[in-house]
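FW: tagging you since you asked about this chain on Friday. Here's the raw sequence from the shared folder, copied in full. Didn't touch anything.
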Amino acid sequence: MAKKTKKQQEALKIVDRTQAYEVKEALEIVKKAASANFDETVEAAFRLGVDPKKADQQIRGAMVLPHGTGKTQTVLVFAKGDKAKEAEAAGADYVGDQELINKINQGWFEFDVVVATPDMMAEVGKLGRVLGPKGLMPNPKTGTVTFEVEKAVKEIKAGKVEYRVDRQSNIHVPIGKVSFDLEKLVENFEALADTLVKVKPQASKGIYMRNASVTSTMGPGVKVDVSAFAK
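HL: got it, structure written out here
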């Protein structure tokens, strides 16, 4: 394990590891504890009362954060004809079909999100073995397989984030940058928490929102009191 820097050791002193803080206070601590010489990403993590091995308890989707993530995503769209023109007009960074598929097969990955029109999925599906492991495969659940390419591109550029429960029942989502105003980080966190409550599977029993924490790229994790969201 890498040795903690002096700044990181100082940051740890600000945090009481045994305490779950209110959202605003937790994020205030994250901002204070950030010590890197770059604008660190702030991430929220939730532990949910679901069994991801069961199909009816898998959680996956996407939402637009009220204040975005602070990072502009590079968007690639697989589309033809009018839909390709629509994607370009909406601000997609790369638009095409077979030519882009060939490029990706040769190891090109200069993009963050992939959108595809449904009629392209037969071809795009062949990229599953290279896009899948990187989490880049378009999926109808996250709104990235759609004929509404203008809407998809604009939402991604506005700060759309994907959420997906992992094998340990956790969800990790970036909610902004350390440089964000505190209120904006709070609103992004609350919007994400509210969305996760709304998508609670009916099959989930017991406490659904078990715990949550917020952290910055290089900073310590800070526990959040989720009782307000634990419906």
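FW: The radius of gyration is 19 Å.
HL: agreed, and The chain has a mean pLDDT of 91.
FW: great, closing this out.
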